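Review form for a predicted model. The reviewer records the input and the model, then writes brief findings.
Reviewer: anonymous (R2)
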Amino acid sequence: MSPARVALVTGGAGGIGAAVCRAIAAPGGRVAVADLDVGAAAPVARAIGGHAVRLDVTDAGSVTAAVAEVAATLGRIEICVNCAGWDELRPFLDTDEPFTARVLEINLVGPIRVSRAVLPGMVEAGWGRVINVASDAGRVGSSMESIYSAAKGGLIAFTKTVAREMARHGITANAVCPGPTDTPLLAGIVAASPEGERVIETMTRSVPMRRLGTPDDVAAAVAFLASEAAGYVTGQTLSVSGGLTMA
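Model under review:
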């Protein structure tokens, strides 16, 4: 990856997002660690020589302000990784309108909002990478995650459309789909559900590699898609799931 490239990573304060920030920064990328909790983003940014910025993906004004701050501090954003996400395990009939709205806002509308903010600069530059962290739940469904699965399935479809429209501008768009991954978000989801432990145990037994993924497993895939080497890879959906799902 060229040292000149500037990356924006949403949800960058922890879990997969923090691992992605480290992976992109390692070969010289300049990374904006964007998160709703800018205090938690700050140590990640310090460790990689990046910039911490507050970004709420559910607020258009916050997104616009964060993108402007990154451009003024690091330069034009050329790599965008939409990693911010949230969910709770709930049977579909136990979901309601507020829960549905929150899951869709964070996991689908948020990445759309961020992409809309950064793509004009990429078009002007004639180069760009958009990597959306979706989920295998969006490819094959997932019990207790009906709304989340719908959001991530929509994100995969959105990614493909962006890839088609942006290809002539030298911009690629791809989706990375983690399987069950050992993150603070997953731990919180499991702790909040009376059936959480059973669901995760079942998933882990189903993984051919017999373990949960790690944030670094996912970050390696994202870093490749963000690199110069992936310039002819676009519109793809890459599962990082230890073989839990196979195309």
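Findings: The chain is about 50% helix and 15% strand.
Further findings: The mean pLDDT is 94.
Recommendation: see findings above.
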